[in-house]
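Priority: medium. Attachment 1 of 2:
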């Protein structure tokens, strides 16, 4: 009889849960962590949380990308809920402005690394909860040999955004 491997932990949900239980000092260090300095001010916290989430990034680049994702989740107060369409939430947060989403999905990794913490601040200001996986996949795979995974995340975000936009246009038309 073959033993089934235990189901893998949802890494983003694990990080979000850890952030919700983190002390104010840990959250402050993660929020202040600077990608330009290699996150040295929060290195212990990042390593501890990545290990607790069973994330074992191979290579410095992937490690930095996960650290950036954790930094953004910390800024956004760990507000992650699997299945809550990120594109729909971004439609609300961006007030339906396609240009803001277009900027995000057309960005190369360097631009994305600048945009994502700003987006996290905007989400936190709006007290928004969303499924962070499409955004994390953008961070992890943009500009890598697995670009197709980033493309899938982009498509999902745009589809959700446009579906929400269509629904809001229908609501306005029906109200008139």
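Attachment 2 of 2:
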């Amino acid at each position: 009889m073959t033993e089934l491997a235990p189901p893998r932990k949802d890494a983003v949900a694990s990080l979000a849960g850890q952030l919700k239980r983190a002390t104010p000092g840990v959250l402050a260090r993660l929020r202040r962590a600077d990608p330009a300095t290699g996150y040295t001010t929060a290195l212990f916290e990042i390593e501890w949380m990545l290990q607790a989430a069973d994330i074992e990034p191979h290579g410095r680049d992937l490690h930095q990308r996960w650290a950036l994702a954790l930094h953004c989740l910390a800024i956004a107060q760990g507000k992650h809920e699997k299945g809550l369409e990120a594109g729909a939430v971004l439609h609300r947060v961006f007030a339906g402005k396609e240009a803001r989403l277009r900027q995000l999905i057309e960005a190369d990794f360097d631009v994305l690394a600048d945009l994502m913490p700003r987006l996290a601040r905007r989400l936190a200001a709006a007290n928004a909860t969303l499924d962070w996986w499409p955004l994390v996949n953008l961070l992890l795979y943009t500009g890598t040999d697995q670009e197709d995974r980033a493309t899938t995340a982009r498509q999902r975000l745009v589809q959700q955004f446009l579906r929400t936009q269509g629904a809001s246009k229908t609501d306005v038309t029906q109200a008139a």
